[in-house]
Request: fold
Amino acid sequence: MTDADLQAEREQRRRRAGQIAVLAIVVVVAAVVRLVGITWGLPDETHLFSYHPDEYHSLRGAFSLALGDLNPHFFNYGSLYLYLVGAVAAVAHPELFASVAEASPGGALLPMVLNRWTLYARIITLVLSLGTVVGVYATARRIWGHKEGVAAGLLLALAPLHVLHSRYGTVDVPGAFFAVLALYFAAAMLDEMSWRNIIRAGVVSGLAASVKYSGGVALVAPVAAWALVRWRRDGGDREASWSMLSALPAVAFVAFALTSPYTLIDWQSAWQDISFEMEHMRTGDDPAMMALYPNGWLFHLGNLAHGTGFVMPAAAAVGLVGGLAARRDDLWPLIAFGAVTFVMIGGPQVRYARYAIPLIPWVAILAGGIVSDDLVGMVRGRLPTWGMAVAIALVLAGSVLGAGMLTQRLLRDLVEIDAQAATLELLEEGVPQEGTIGLITEPWFYHPPVDYCNGGVALRANPLWAPYREPIRELVILGLDAEALRESEPDAVVLTGFEITVRRTAGDRRAEEFMEAVEDLGYVAVNRPRGLARSWASGRPLAQDWLYAYPWIEVRMRGQGG
Reply:
């Protein structure tokens, strides 16, 4: 090797080391903003279950494994994440894991298990969310280059909806991680249509479905990449064989079957849960939210804008236009994935912001293209170079600032606001021991923990958890029944945004009549609720999963002021 070759190799190593250092900084930023508040709402001495309504389900696999049963007996989504939680729980505290089989309902062990395992589930989500940042960087780098990858990774690192859900022990962020890997391997297929890349793309697509069934849409990207190679414009590349195309779903199915085996083995039970979810998606679960957001696609457009800080989608559109103008074929698998995913999530009648989470990394990848040379080539001769540089800098800065400012507000309120604890203290101080507390529904995640067993109707009736029922005062479940309120006249009434605000905004007459009864009976607010109650863009109440950590809770007591 000549001196020139050695010098070039050293320079390449220095450049690569610098790129890794920059990526490491982006990952550290992502980790810092995701670690803030990661212990929010964990089970403690006041409440048995997490304040997140879905986190308990992520522990199903851990409980089954601890009892010696590989079947998670829960099939509303795939089993991979459930098994990951179980594996980490077994490794982190093997003695605690082994003790579950001998635990007595009502004892101290099971509450400890819920606390520790919920935290482990959140840590798994956190790790996979950081992996998603790296995957976004790698995909944008493969399509454009290093600086575009850094921009994409930084934008995802600060994206508010992704940041918020990266601290929850739920399947949405982990599923998006495997979807991003599918996008990366689809891009790799365009560079090298090999069996290795085919198998990789099929495996990660199957794993995405094994986390959450709808994650199987990730397979669209590698299929689009195969088609693009098969019928590329010049017609000269015939490396993409039909056997490769058939291998993609076959490999995905094998990956799914190996990581969610009991979905197939115990198909009768699995179908009951899957058909329940299908019917749930068809009919919806919150008429008020459906009335406020009758169009699912507009709902998700709004959440995608809100969830990325509003400016990032504009940057993505500019990056996409520049890439298409530069005839970048490797954008088409991205476009196919985004289009199919958006159509899929907008159709169901269930309205949750988290359904758009797989699209947030997609937006970040496209937005990274705003710093590419494609845009310069598109407008060369039409705008001065300095003008183009200023415009790109403004859009990129706006994307970073928009995402960063909303994320900063989320983190600030996450640290400063503990609505459940504050309202619990008010109730314990203001309601006598022999008094009563009125609730619209059974104690659940959006209430102060007026009963230690706070898991809603299903878990409070479960023989395993029912022994933990321990209300701080006698509870009166009122429904939205004004007459029930007048008849029982509890000492205090707890009102929440999930039960009242959304319904009143949607024009629910029962909610209005209930509040009229509250006023007529002289109930006075003793606190000032705080929370991210409404969208900055539409002014309408935000979707529930924006507000799990920021519930609007008002306590009304008779004859008191505050």
